[in-house]
Amino acid sequence: MTTTQIQARYAKKMFNQLIKEVAVKPITYEIVDANHRAQAVLISYQDWQQYQSLLAQKK
């Protein structure tokens, strides 16, 4: 198993643990950084709505 696979499994386990402990389910938002690596970011629903409205204004 590669280091990346181990890190991905650990991140998934920690994400699931976080969801169990927090009453509000976060949203996973995937972005790609300048080095073309995918990054999963946890944001609240309110933040997600704000980003969506800002994106809609740009169109």
Short recap of the structure:
The chain has 59 residues and is of the alpha+beta class. The protein is 56% helix and 20% strand.
Textual characterization of the structure:
The protein is of the alpha+beta class and 59 residues long. 56% of the residues lie in helices and 20% in strands. It has one domain: YefM-like fold, CATH 3.40.1620. It has helices at residues 3-21, 45-58; strands at 27-32, 38-43. A two-stranded antiparallel sheet has the order 1-2. It starts with a helix and ends with a helix. It comes from Latilactobacillus fuchuensis. This is Antitoxin. Belongs to the phD/YefM antitoxin family.
CATH superfamily: YefM-like domain
Count of spatially separate domains: 1
- Structural classification: alpha+beta
Strand order of the largest sheet: 1-2
Briefly, what CATH class? Answer: Alpha Beta
Give the end-to-end Cα distance, rounded to a whole number of Å: 43 Å
Strand content: 15-25%
How many strands appear in the DSSP assignment?
2
Kindly state the percentage of residues in helix.
55-70%
Q: Radius of gyration, Cα only, in angstroms?
A: 14 Å
Count of alpha/pi helices: 2
Q: Please mark out the parts with pLDDT under 50 across 5 or more consecutive residues, or reply none.
A: none
What about the largest sheet?
2 strands, antiparallel
